[in-house]
Amino acid sequence: MSIRLLKTLVAVAxxxxxxxxxDAVFITHAAVSQQMRTLETELGIALFDRSRRTPELTPxxxxxxxxxxxxxxxxxxxxxxxxxxxxxxGEIVLGAVPTTLTGLAPLGMRILRAKYADLHVRIHPxxxxxxxxxxxxxxxxxxxxxxxVLLPPGMSYLRVAEEPLHLITAEEIDxxxxxxxxETNPFIRFNRDAxxxxxxxxxxxxNNVRVSETMELENLEAISSMVHANLGVSIVPTPCVVTKYxxxxxxxxxxQNAPSRELVLLYHxxxxxxxxxxxVHKALLNAIAANAPSEADAS
Length: 299
Hints:
Mean pLDDT: 89
Low-confidence stretches: none
Number of domains: 3
Domain HTH lysR-type: 1-58
Radius of gyration: 23 Å
Family: Belongs to the LysR transcriptional regulatory family.
CATH topology of the largest domain: D-Maltodextrin-Binding Protein, domain 2
CATH class of the largest domain: Alpha Beta
Number of helices: 12
Protein name: Transcriptional regulator, LysR family
GO molecular function, one term: DNA-binding transcription factor activity
Distance between the termini: 62 Å
Keywords: DNA-binding, Transcription, Transcription regulation
């Protein structure tokens, strides 16, 4: 059995079809099919249920994939572990929620790259639920997410920042009561599929606030642009970093019981690149320390 066959098996599990796996490992569909039959012969078990139009992993096949991932990871980190660089070369794949893509994520990765020039960080944006699924499949090394109520088993996390939710309005709106602003202006809703979107909806219901929804978006910059144009008001997290490109809008606190979203780095407890993940965490914390908003920025 070769590591090449195991890598192809993991690619099939990640990409769901032989054709997509072939593209991922740069071989033909026929070669993937042949490699999987060879692996089944060597192991003496059926890895795939071929009674369906698209072959699917059997329960035994899924168990083999889980072990194959660890073997592939061990193989990929063999030389770095012997040389003692702890994996600070090559590539690490970072998932990130969209709200961090124009602030925290690039600021943190700039710090990381300055320290480890041989480490390439590939960023994959998605909502928290999708990022957790990608982590579980092994297509991500670590993810910067909004911490949900429940975390997947086998995962651990490092705290990054707490971002209180606040109301944003166009600068020409001079009303200071957040409830009145929400009930008298069109509401631009944060995507309800996001953890933050769920927090916002819960807060609105708990405070009996009725809003007139005009649109639903997941990109913080898009929401801010719409608010700046006075097309509505919105509730969003207070950014933990300040950038030069902040859109001029008015920010109002939601009150003493305002919810907060917690940004965390999520990863597998047994990940072979744990030292790299710890350095990613340090870089994000340093980015926050160097670019923290002042009281004037938050108001």
